[in-house]
Structure formats: structure tokens, C-alpha cells
């Protein structure tokens, strides 16, 4: 190998080596950052916006439950036409007798008001259950927010990783192509055999295949990024791990997760709802007390032109004695459901604990892999340099050089993967702790507040227009 060809090969190798630092290098002023991508996902992700709408749906449960305290008012009106012909039982004569005919138009209108007074505390418990359901839906929203932000961070890092790997594979194709050209030149002058040429040709075909696969992986990662973030990735800046939000020990991470994770809180609210539903079911066995008032105006009731006005106020006490066993069954069913919700809460706690432990291990492994990959790159670069020098004097074969190049490429790909894994694992750990949200990440967004809509609708007595005007 002459000196000119050797310098060209080393320039290609240097170009490939720079791709390793794509996950850590400096970025331009116009580049998309990981934080801005997360902000985009927070504001426009359809899954997250759908969950916000779901919380607003649950807000109306409170207004519906409170309607049990309020009166029911109904107005009625009716009109008809009657024809009556009656036989008087006397012979028809100049002074009467025979049959009588009556044509009337009975009509009227009225208003009825019913006001519940006591219903075995069913309404109160329904309101409390609805309020707990709203709180649970908010925690589910927080869980969805965490999931979306983690998916966005993962998609961001996947695009960075696959871009860097594609650059490495393309540069590797150029390096091996140059190696093939040099091998053919040496074969033409009798320095190597046809076998060396064939080995280089096989390796260039394999490298092109790997480059095509890397390109396909990048396209898939771009599609996922577009789905989650909402825009095409353009000039992505390096991603950084969430070291500031990562505790120093796994014990601290577990304490935070078990106290703050929204999935656990959502299940706790579900337990509250189930326990209150037991009380609602039991309330159906209690006496029911209510008041009903009505006013009716009638015309043509008995004779043409007559009218009558009636009004009444009635207090009614209903004491259930036996409901065919339905209420008792519903109570038992509600108790079983409450037990099920408690078991589900325990299950979620175990799942959160397992997620924290697993992601802590992944983060530690990624840190170790970065150090190992960097050491592997240093060793592989030294080995490749030595093999190339030895090949120049005939002590190494072309296959030895190709294998050394492949080992260096593998080491660089391992480093890129480890860098990506470290960032993603840090986000996954913070998510498992329950702290991966827009406020903790200090995202520059208009933070969504579910309490605004709740305060607007929870005490509404009338109206079909939702607060946004629709």
C-alpha cells in the first residue's frame, strides 16, 4: 500500500470516527433540542389531548351527582275533544226528553315539583365518588403525560442513534471500497492473491447491506418521531440524561415512586370510588323521604265553559321492605369490586417497584457500557493501525485488515447505542418514579390545568354550552 492511498484511507476512517460523537457534539442555533421536542409533544400529541378531554368528561360526573340534591320540575299540558250522547229514558216531546248531546273540549296545564329530602345518603356518596373519580382521571392524565414524554424522548434519541449509525455505515462502505480498490491494485502487481480480492468484495457487499438496513431503521425512527412529536425531525441537537432528577440511590428512587407515582394514586382513588359505591348500594335499603307539589288548571271537565284550579303539597316517606334481593346482591357485588380495586392497587405498587428497579439497572448498565465501548474503540483503533502497518510489509492479510475495521465499526456502534441507552434509561427511571412531567422538566409550554374546567362545570344548574363555547 503506497503512502498516498494510506492517507486517503485514514481520512475516511477519521470521517467515520466523527459520527460517534453525534450524540454528544455541539449543535447549531437553529437545531431542535430534546426539550423543545418534548414541548411539542406535550402541546400537540393526540393521545395526550384525548386524555385531557377524558378528564373533562369525568368533571361532568360531579355535576350529575349533585343533581340529586336539586328539585325536579315538570310542566304538562293537554287538550282533547269529547262527544257524549245520553238517553234520558223519557219520550221525546216539546219540552225535552229523548237523548242529550254533550260536546266538550277538556284541556289544562300544570306544573309539578319534586324535592328529595333524604335518600339514605346516596346522593352525598355519589358526589364523593364522582369527585374521587375526577381525581383518579387526573392521575391517569399524569400517567399518560409521562408515557408520551418518555415516548418522545425515546423517539428523539432513536433518530439520533440511527442517524449516527447510518453515517458510520456509509463511511464504512467508503473505507472498504477504498480497501477493495487498493487490494485490486496490489493484486495487479502480484502482492496479494485473488482470494484477498474476493474477501474485500464480500465485505463491501456486506457493508452496503448494513448501510441499507441502517437507512431503513432511520426511516422507521423518523416515522415514530413524527407520530409522537407531530413534526419531522430537523437538525436534532444532542440529547442529555436527566442527571438532575435522578436520585443517588435506588432506595431513594423507590421511596419517591411509591409516594408520588400517578398510577398508584389513580388506583387509590379507584379504591375510594369502589368503597363509596358500597355505601350508595346500601343507601337503597334506607327510608326515602321527599316532597312533591303540583298546580293544575283544567277547563271543560264536566260541562262546557267550566274551569277548576287545584294545588297540592305531599310529603312521601317510602320504607323499602323487600326488593326481591336485588339491592342485597348489588351491595355484595360492590363490596367484591372494592376488594378487587384494593388488589389492583397492590399490583400497581409492585409494578412500579419493578419498573424503578429495572430502569435503575439499565441506567447503571448504560453508564458501564459507555466506558467499555470507549475503551473498546481505543483498543480497536490501535489494533487497526498496527494491522495496517503489518499488512504493508506483508505480515498481515487483507482479511486481517477487514476484520480489524469491522471490530472498530462494531465498537463505535456500541458506543452510540450505549449513549442512547443512557439518556433513555434516565428518562425511563424518572418516569418510573412518577416525576416525568412538564413542570419538573421545566418545559416552555402553557401547562394544562384540569382544575379550570372542573371549577367551571361542577356547580352548573343549567346550560348545554361547554366552557369553550361549543
Rg? 39 Å
Distance between the termini: 77 Å
In the CATH hierarchy, the third-tier topology is known as: Outer membrane efflux proteins (OEP)
- Share of helix, binned: 55-70%
**Count of discrete domains:** 1
CATH architecture grouping: Up-down Bundle
What count of helical segments does DSSP give? 10
Overall average pLDDT: 88
Please list the strands of the largest sheet in the order they lie side by side.
1-4-5-6
Shape descriptor reads elongated
Can you identify the CATH class? Answer: Mainly Alpha
What class would the helix/strand composition place it in?
A: alpha+beta
Topology order in helix (H) and strand (E) letters: HHHEEEEHHHHEEHHH
For the sheet with most strands, the description reads: 4 strands, antiparallel
Strand content: 5-15%
How many strand segments?
A: 6
Which homologous superfamily in CATH is the superfamily? Outer membrane efflux proteins (OEP)
Describe the secondary-structure layout:
Elements: H1 3-18, H2 34-44, H3 46-66, E1 72-79, E2 82-87, E3 99-104, E4 107-118, H4 122-188, H5 194-229, H6 250-260, H7 262-283, E5 288-299, E6 307-318, H8 326-392, H9 398-433, H10 450-457
Antiparallel strand pairs: 1-4, 2-3, 4-5, 5-6
Amino acid at each position: 500500500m503506497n503512502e498516498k492511498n494510506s492517507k486517503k484511507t485514514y481520512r475516511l476512517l477519521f470521517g467515520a470516527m466523527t459520527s460517534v460523537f453525534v450524540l454528544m457534539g455541539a449543535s447549531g442555533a437553529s437545531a431542535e433540542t430534546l426539550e423543545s421536542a418534548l414541548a411539542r409533544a406535550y402541546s400537540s400529541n393526540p393521545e395526550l389531548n384525548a386524555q385531557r378531554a377524558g378528564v373533562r368528561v369525568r368533571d361532568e360526573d360531579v355535576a350529575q351527582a349533585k343533581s340529586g340534591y336539586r328539585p325536579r320540575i315538570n310542566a304538562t299540558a293537554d287538550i282533547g275533544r269529547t262527544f257524549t250522547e245520553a238517553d234520558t229514558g223519557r219520550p221525546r216531546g216539546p219540552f225535552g226528553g229523548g237523548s242529550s248531546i254533550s260536546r266538550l273540549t277538556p284541556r289544562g296545564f300544570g306544573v309539578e315539583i319534586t324535592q328529595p329530602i333524604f335518600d339514605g345518603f346516596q346522593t352525598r356518596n355519589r358526589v364523593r365518588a364522582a369527585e374521587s373519580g375526577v381525581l383518579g382521571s387526573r392521575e391517569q392524565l399524569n400517567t399518560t403525560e409521562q408515557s408520551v414524554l418518555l415516548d418522545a424522548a425515546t423517539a428523539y434519541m432513536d433518530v439520533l442513534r440511527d442517524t449516527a449509525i447510518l453515517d458510520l455505515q456509509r463511511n464504512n462502505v467508503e473505507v472498504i471500497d477504498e480497501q477493495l480498490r487498493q487490494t485490486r491494485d496490489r493484486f495487479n502487481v502480484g502482492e496479494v492473491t485473488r482470494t484477498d480480492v474476493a474477501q474485500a468484495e464480500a465485505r463491501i457487499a456486506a457493508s452496503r447491506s448494513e448501510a441499507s438496513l441502517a437507512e431503513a431503521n432511520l426511516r422507521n425512527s423518523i416515522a415514530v418521531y413524527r407520530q409522537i412529536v407531530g413534526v419531522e425531525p430537523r437538525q436534532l441537537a444532542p440529547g442529555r440524561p436527566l442527571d438532575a432528577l435522578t436520585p443517588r440511590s435506588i432506595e431513594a428512587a423507590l421511596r419517591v415512586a411509591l409516594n408520588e407515582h400517578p398510577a398508584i394514586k389513580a388506583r387509590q382513588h379507584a379504591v375510594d370510588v369502589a368503597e363509596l359505591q358500597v355505601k350508595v348500594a346500601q343507601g337503597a335499603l334506607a327510608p326515602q323521604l321527599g316532597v312533591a307539589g303540583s298546580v293544575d288548571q283544567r277547563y271543560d271537565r264536566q260541562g262546557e265553559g267550566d274551569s277548576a284550579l287545584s294545588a297540592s303539597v305531599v310529603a312521601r316517606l317510602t320504607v323499602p321492605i323487600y326488593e326481591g334481593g336485588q339491592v342485597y346482591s348489588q351491595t355484595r357485588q360492590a363490596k367484591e369490586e372494592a376488594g378487587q380495586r384494593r388488589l389492583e392497587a397492590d399490583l400497581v405498587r409492585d409494578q412500579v417497584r419493578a419498573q424503578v428497579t429495572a430502569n435503575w439497572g439499565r441506567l447503571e448498565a448504560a453508564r458501564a457500557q459507555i466506558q467499555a465501548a470507549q475503551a473498546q474503540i481505543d483498543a480497536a483503533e490501535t489494533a487497526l493501525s498496527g494491522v495496517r502497518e503489518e499488512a504493508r510489509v506483508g505480515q498481515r492479510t487483507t482479511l486481517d485488515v477487514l476484520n480489524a475495521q469491522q471490530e472498530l465499526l462494531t465498537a463505535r456502534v456500541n458506543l452510540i447505542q450505549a449513549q442512547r441507552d443512557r439518556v433513555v434509561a434516565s428518562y425511563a427511571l424518572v418516569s418510573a418514579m412518577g416525576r416525568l412531567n412538564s413542570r419538573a422538566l421545566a418545559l416552555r409550554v402553557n401547562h394544562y390545568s384540569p382544575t379550570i374546567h372542573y371549577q367551571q362545570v361542577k356547580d352548573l344548574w343549567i346550560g348545554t354550552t361547554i366552557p369553550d363555547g361549543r
